[in-house]
Amino acid sequence: MKVLESIERFALTNRIAVECLDKCLSYKELKEYSDKISMYLLKEFGEDRTPIIIYGNKDNYILPVMMGALKSGRAYIPLDITFPENRVREIIEEVKPKVIFNFTNISLEEDSALEVKGDQIEDILNIYFSELASKETWVKDEDNCYILFTSGSTGKPKGVQITKRNIDTFVIWFEEFLEFDDSEEKVLNQVSYSFDVSVIPIFIGLGNGKTLFSLNKDTLEDLKSLFTQLASSNINHWVSTPALAEICVTFDDFNSMRISGLSKFVFAGEVLTKKLVKELMNKFPNVKIINGYGPTEATVLISAIEIDNNMIESEKGIPIGYPIDSCELGIIDESGNRLKPKEKGELVVIGNSVSKGYLNNIEMTDKAFFKDKAGNQGYKTGDLAYYEDGIIYYCGRKDFQIKLNGFRIEIEDIENNLRKVTNIKNTVVFPVFNEEHKISHLTAFVVLNEDNELSNLKNSTLIKSELKKFIPSYMIPRNIKIVKEFPLNTNGKIDRKKLMEDLK
Ligand code: AMP
C-alpha cells in the first residue's frame, strides 16, 4: 500500500510526518511506532482481524495506531471526540472490537474489549520490537482499511467499509490531479479523522512524504489561536470543507501575504459558493481553488475540478468536475434509464472506488448499492446532477426535493438563488412541517456579508424583494432568520440538525 511504502521510504530521511501544537512526529518515529503497534495487535489478538476502534481527535499517536492496524491486516474505525458517548457505545456494540485505543478522558470500560488509553501507548512502544515486523501481514486488496460511520439520518449509524482497492483507486487518480510529488511540503490536516476528507492528508499527504499540519478541536474552537497557528504554519496545500474557509476569510490577515507558501485550496464535502471563491481569489490571487465531490461510500471524491473565472461569471453553479479516471459516473432517471447531457437526474458511480457496503447491514446496502451487468460494484449517490461538456454540475440532494402547495421545489435551488442576493454570505433553507407532517412553509437561515444593524424584519423584507428577481414567489421562504454564523458539525459542515432544532 502506497502510504505504508512511503512511510518506510521517508523513515530513512529527517522528514517530519505530523506536527500538532509544536509537537512533532518524524517519519522515522511513525514507522517505528506503527511497526510496534502492529506487532502488539498480531501478538495479542492473533488471527482475529476484527477492526480496532480509535476514539480521539488529533493526538499525534493516532496516526501510528492507524498505520499499525493496516500493517497488522486490520481496519481502523476512527470516532471523533465530538461523537456523543452513547453513539460511541452503539458503534462498539455493532463492531464488537477486541481493542479500543482511547485518546479521550472518557472511560469506556467496555467488558468485551480491551481499552488502551493514550498514555498506555508508551508501554506498547517499550515492550514490542519493530525489527520483527513484516510486510506479509499488511492489508490486502479486498481487506477493509477503514470503516466510517455516517451520521445516520435514519437513526442507526451506517458503517461504510473501505478496502485497500478502494483507497488505491482514489489515491492514484487524485494525487495525479493534485500534481503531488515527493517534495518537502506541508498539508493542512484539519478535518476530523471520522470524516473521509481526512483521507486526503493521510493517504495522499503521507503517501508523498508531506508533513501534516494538524489543527485539533481546541484550536478550531478558538478563532484567535486558529488564525495564529495558520499564519505561522507555512502550509502549501489547504484541505478542508468550505465552511472552515468561510470563517477564515473574515480575518483581514487571511491572505497570501500571511500564508505565503500556499499553492492550492482543496475543498470537499459540501457546496462551494461563488462568494467564497471570489473572496479567496481576491485574497489569494495565485492560489488554485479545487472543488472536489464525493460520498463516503465511493471513497472520498469521485470528481474534481479547478475553478476559474469563467465558472464564476457563468449563470450555472460551480461545477463539481470531471469524473475520477477509472470509474463510470452516470446520470439516471427514476426508472434507472441513462440520461443525456444537460438532463438532470440521480448521479450513480460504478467501479473500484465503490465500497462493498455497510457493515452488518444488508438491508441498507441493498438499497443504495448495486451490481452492473459486468458485476462491477455501483452506488446510487442520492445526489441530483447533470453533465455538460463532460463536466458534472451538482443540483442538490434528491431527498431535499419537496412539494409545497403542489409545487415541486428543490431546496438547494432556493439556497443558490438566495446566495445571489447582495448582502447574503450564506444560507440554509428548511421546510417547516405542520401537525399532519405536511410542509406548511419554508424558513431560511441567513448569514449576512455585512452587519447592517437593521432589524430582522427589515432585512427579511429587503432580501425577499431582491429574491423575487430570481425565483417565483411560491419558492420564497416565508420566514427569514438572520444569524451571526452557522454552527458546524464534527465534519466541519454546516450543522443542519442543530439549526433545525431552532425551528421547533
Ligand atoms: P459525505 O459522505 O459525508 O462526504 O457526504 C457526501 C455528500 O456531501 C454528497 O453526496 C453531496 O451531497 C455532498 N457533497 C460532497 N461534496 C460536495 C461538493 N463539492 N458540492 C456539493 N455537495 C457536495
Automatic annotation (TrEMBL):
InterPro entries per the UniProt record, alphabetical: AA_adenyl_dom, AMP-bd_C, AMP-bd_C_sf, AMP-binding_CS, AMP-dep_synth/lig_dom, ANL_N_sf, DltA-like
Enzymatic class: ligase
GO MF, one example: ligase activity
Pfam families: AMP-binding, AMP-binding_C
Coiled-coil ranges from the UniProt annotation: 397-424
Superkingdom, natural source: Bacteria
Domain AMP-dependent synthetase/ligase: 14-359
Alphabetized UniProt keyword annotations: ATP-binding, Coiled coil, Cytoplasm, Ligase, Nucleotide-binding
Ranges where the AMP-binding enzyme C-terminal domain occurs: 414-493
EC numbers: 6.1.1.13
Calcium among keywords: no
Keyword set includes Transit peptide: no
Membership in a protein family: Belongs to the ATP-dependent AMP-binding enzyme family. DltA subfamily.
PANTHER family, per database record: ENZYME, PUTATIVE (JCVI)-RELATED (PTHR45398:SF1), PTHR45398
UniProt-listed NCBIfam families: AA-adenyl-dom, PRK04813.1
Role according to the record: Catalyzes the first step in the D-alanylation of lipoteichoic acid (LTA), the activation of D-alanine and its transfer onto the D-alanyl carrier protein (Dcp) DltC. In an ATP-dependent two-step reaction, forms a high energy D-alanyl-AMP intermediate, followed by transfer of the D-alanyl residue as a thiol ester to the phosphopantheinyl prosthetic group of the Dcp. D-alanylation of LTA plays an important role in modulating the properties of the cell wall in Gram-positive bacteria, influencing the net charge of the cell wall.
Record's protein name: D-alanine--poly(Phosphoribitol) ligase subunit 1
Organism: Clostridium chromiireducens
